[in-house]
Amino acid sequence: VLRQAALAEPTVQFRTGVGVDGLTSSAPGRIDGAALHTGERVEGDVVIASTGRRGDVPGWLDAHGIAVPETVRESGLMYLTRWYRLPPTRDFDLAKLGGDLQFVKYLAVPGDGHTLSVTLAIRPDDKDLRNALSAAAGFEAACRALPGPDQFFTGEPLEPIGDVRPMTGLLNRVRRFSDDNGEPTVLGFHAIGDAHTCTNPLYGRGCSLAMVQAVLLADATAANPGDPHRRAVDYEAACKREVEPWFDVSVQMDKAGADPTGFVADGGAGNRMAALFVAAATDPIIGRGLARFWNLLATPADMMTDGELLNRMAEVMANPDAYPVPEREGPSRTQLLATLEAA
């Protein structure tokens, strides 16, 4: 949808099949274009990198003497994903189905064109599980054993689309394009999305935060025509305010085991935190508050200014036993490994 809207703009030009080798600069600390694989140089008043989490933005800028400090926190997870084609004779008008057994997190998502993606998230150092799930037979056996994905694997076999695909590097990272005083370290260049700030993709915030940053950059550009310094100051300040809190949230959620009920492990403060998520299913005040949080409509700082929400959360946390965490459904790690070995 977004691509079609951009293509409809008479002043927008798309260049496909052409890679970028680096950036060009005509003055220290200023970027004014991109160097393509073809040897061509494309000049611009503003250069925007939306190159994802694996794009080499620091390397490109380092070539021009511009350092890009990073804060990195590992998520402790890796993905194993396989795509399937669903039979056209079966109605799979189902919501995404997933769960969290601590040793494995999983999600099955029906898509367009009768397709299905299944992703299993495990610790990279769990070699036994990683080896077993990397095999096609083991992966499908897990899909049949896990509550949720199993609904798609009853009846006739599904047609695989490709092999089991691993994805590592699921880190949380913030890159700094300004110094401690808010002064920009580079002019004429901006990064958005994962090229600027990335969070554990398990939480599904990447595309939304990229759109937020695109709007923030558009606002800073409109407010400061012809002033790259002020534009950079305003944009980075807005990112620090609107985007970076979600980096902090992601790191904290990773520490809790990604599943909010993972907080229950310590039986103290964690138990009280887990009770909030249980209460959210039936309590309208907490439910609405957490819905705003999950959908990026309210930062943790915003939630702290909601007196009604804070009061209700305090009541629940004072009596967590009234909101017991449901038992996890699904096999234990030992049981799942036995199932995979027999596949």
Describe the model.
- By secondary structure, the protein is of the alpha+beta class.
- It has 3 domains: 2-70 and 171-250, FAD/NAD(P)-binding domain, CATH 3.50.50.60; 78-168, D-Amino Acid Oxidase, Chain A, domain 2; 259-322, no CATH class.
- The protein contains 12 helices and 13 strands.
- A 5-stranded antiparallel sheet has the order 7-8-9-6-10, covered by helices on one side. A 3-stranded antiparallel sheet has the order 1-2-3. A 3-stranded antiparallel sheet has the order 5-11-13, covered by helices on one side.
- β8 (105-111) and β9 form a beta hairpin.
- α4 (136-145) packs across α12 (333-342) and α5 packs antiparallel against α6 (228-242).
- The longest helix is centred in the middle third of the chain and has 18 residues, at 206-223.
- The protein is globular.
- The chain starts with a helix and ends with a helix.
Describe how the helices and strands are arranged.
Blueprint (H helix, E strand, L loop, with lengths): L1 H6 L12 E5 L8 E4 L4 E3 L3 E3 L7 H6 L7 E5 L3 E8 L11 E4 L4 E7 L3 E8 L4 H8 L1 H10 L13 E9 L3 E5 L13 E3 L5 E2 L7 H18 L4 H15 L1 H12 L13 H11 L4 H11 L5 H4 L3 H12 L14 H10 L1
Parallel strand pairs: 4-12
Antiparallel strand pairs: 1-2, 2-3, 5-11, 6-9, 6-10, 7-8, 8-9, 11-13
Name a few traits of the molecule.
globular, alpha+beta, 12 helices, 343 residues, 5-stranded antiparallel sheet, 3 domains, D-Amino Acid Oxidase, Chain A, domain 2, 19% strand, 3-stranded antiparallel sheet, FAD/NAD(P)-binding domain
